[in-house]
Amino acid sequence: MIMLAVVALFATSCKDYLDVNVNQNKPTSVTADLILPQALVATGLVLNQYNTYGAQVGGYMANAGGYGGFNEQTTYAFTPNNYANLWAVSYDNLEDYQYMMDQTDGDPNFIFYNAVARIMKSYGFQLLVDAYNNVPYSQALLAAGNLTPEYDDAATIYASLASEIDKAIADLNTGISASVAPKALGTNDVVFLGNTNLWIRFANSVKLRLLIRGQGKVTFTNTSFDPAGFLNLDALINPGFARDNNRQNPEWNQWTWTYAGTAQPKAWIPTTFIAAFYNNIKINDPGRGKKMYYQWPTTGTNQLGFESTGIPKSPDGSFWYPGTERGGTAAGNSTGAIKGPDAGFVLMLRAESDFLLSEAFLSGIPTGASGDAQSWFTQGIKDAFYYTYSLPGGGLKKTTSTEDLKIVSGGDPTGDANAYITANAANALVDWTAAATNAQKLEAIITQKYIAVNMVNSQEGYNEYRRTGYPTITGTDPTFASTVSISSRQDRLPGRILYPTSEIQYNPANVPPGINTNNGVIFWAK
Questions:
Q1: CA-to-CA dists, residue 279 to 75, 77, 301, angstroms
Q2: What's the rounded Cα separation, in Å, for the pair 63 and 271?
Q3: What's the CA gap between 61 and 275, in Å, rounded?
Q4: pLDDT surpasses 70 at 181
Q5: How far is Cα 117 from Cα 185, in angstroms, rounded to an integer?
Q6: How far apart are CA 453 and CA 277, in angstroms?
Q7: Residue 135: beta bridge partners?
Q8: What is the DSSP track for 293-353?
Q9: Integer Cα distance of 244 and 494 in angstroms
Q10: 433: Cβ contacts below 8 Å, ≥ 6 apart
């Protein structure tokens, strides 16, 4: 059953500040401009859970030594309780966007709010489909109108999401050209500060992700893109995160310290698999290694499932915080994935959009963008360095709605990116000219994307592995499959997580039967 009450998004100190409390039975109690900032921040909380799921299942994170009790997280004998909160928080957040759409539909004064809600609803449903495949869609989000919604075909949902994005872009353009200006998004927009052009660019990038994953399996009504182009900066959610009770960046709060300086649990560490993309086993990348991990290159790693006490535990603040200041009330202002309590949460990296464009050129999907597969591949590498090297204040300036970027002061991303390309000449995972076939070029694109989203949007790296089989984990390559995996798949990895207990209990007639972690693959998966 789709949750009707607002679900507690997190049992952390961030809960009260970040919850969205909308009574669906009193639609006049709150307006779209008040809902938008809370809904966007709630999306950050949702993404934090997806990032954890993707990191633990998709090869970025392993159990530390000397700990036990990991159970299904290492065996992959998933039950409906594993990662079940992804379902609840996703639909809760989607209800917020649906409420905004219902309240503003047909109102030219709120056309920008309606369009942004439509884009974010499409973004949120793709997260669900990519995790569960068929999900309630056409009959979902009706509140008491339907407590047992049917499940829609995943490919059909993808087609609908692309059409919804088209409508949102058209509405944004209508609002931009209106003779009487609609109500501005302004600072209620905690992603782009009211810049509607950036919302169009973001929408194009989300649609491109749908088309890339759905190619050959989805019939899209319209495969063209708005001429505004694609993301040209990292899309960050930041309502004013700060080192304060209930206001820290959720990833910082989960993996490093609470606002009071208490160290968070240290039972997870980087995998030996992901380290291979920095330590010259697969790729030589000392620059980003130092910006990503504490005490690189001596950072402790493990393979999921191995529980020897010889494997180190994470230090206070975790291995994913590279800063030398380890005092919980002073740490922060760092490079890497977990930058500080005030850092924005990534909605989508510019680098991910770059790599999508590179694959589009490689696959023959017209985007209207200039360049070619190689140029966007190279740009993706450089933009991935840019994000990793940026400090918490990087990205869109918080005092203006222009598209200017703050100067990065966490190192030399451009110089190190160029050095990285030079140092890995003839390595087909980095050097485009060394990739002799389209299959090798696709492997390079997906591998670089996998590196870029490391502990940022880890679910996207896991999704792309399941879609393409890259990065490779077969033959002589290291694997991220658990040492105690019970999976019968060739790669010994799970194909998916299971539908949650809430659906099995309250909507059993509609839950697809016979789904398990091996056979219930997502429609776009290999």
A1: 27, 32, 12
A2: 9
A3: 10
A4: yes
A5: 12
A6: 13
A7: 152
A8: STTTTS---B-TT---TTSPPPPTT-TT---S---TTT----SSSS--TTPPEEEE-HHHH
A9: 38
A10: none
How is 159-186 classified by DSSP, letter by letter? HHHHHHHHHHHHHHHHHHH-SSPPPP-G
- In angstroms, the Cα distances linking 474 to 55, 154, 293, 479, 501 are 20, 29, 26, 7, 34
d(Cα 58, Cα 291) in Å, to the nearest integer? Answer: 21
* Beta-carbon count within 10 A of 164 CB: 18
Question: Which residue has tokens 């190619």?
Answer: 215
Q: Is 249 helix (H, G, I), strand (E, B) or coil?
A: coil
pLDDT given at position 243: 95
Distance CA 231, CA 197 (A): 10
Cα of 131 vs its chain's centroid, Å? 12
Residue 257 DSSP symbol: B
| Res 393: pLDDT | 74
Query: Using CB atoms within 10 A of its CB, is residue 475 exposed (0-12), middle (13-18) or buried (19+)?
Result: exposed
Written as one letter, the residue type at 35 is I
Q: Which helix (H) or strand (E) holds 380?
A: helix 373-389
Q: Which residues contact 349 (CB under 8 A, 6 or more apart)?
A: 234, 235, 383, 384, 387, 452, 453, 456, 457
The first and second tokens of residue 480, run together, are 């991220």
Dihedral in degrees, nearest 10, Cα atoms 52, 63, 381, 412: 100
CA-closest candidate to residue 39, choices 347, 361, 307, 321: 347
* C-alpha of 419 from chain center: 28
Cα dist from 403 to 107, 113, 267, 398, 399, whole Å: 28, 20, 40, 11, 11
The structure tokens 């890259």 sit at 470
Distance of alpha carbon 291 from alpha carbon 337, whole angstroms: 9
Each residue's pLDDT tens digit, 399-434:
444 444 455 667 889 999 999 999 999 999 999 999
For residue 204, the surrounding DSSP H or E stretch is helix 196-214
Distance of alpha carbon 89 from alpha carbon 20, whole angstroms: 11
208: tokens are: 């491109």
* Distance in angstroms (rounded) separating the CA atoms of residues 64 and 268: 5
Distance of alpha carbon 285 from alpha carbon 278, whole angstroms: 4
The continuous run of DSSP H or E covering 236 comes out as strand 235-237
Separation of alpha carbons 130 and 60, rounded Å: 18
Structure tokens at 359: 């694959």
Q: For residues 308 and 294, which has the higher predicted lDDT (pLDDT)?
A: 294
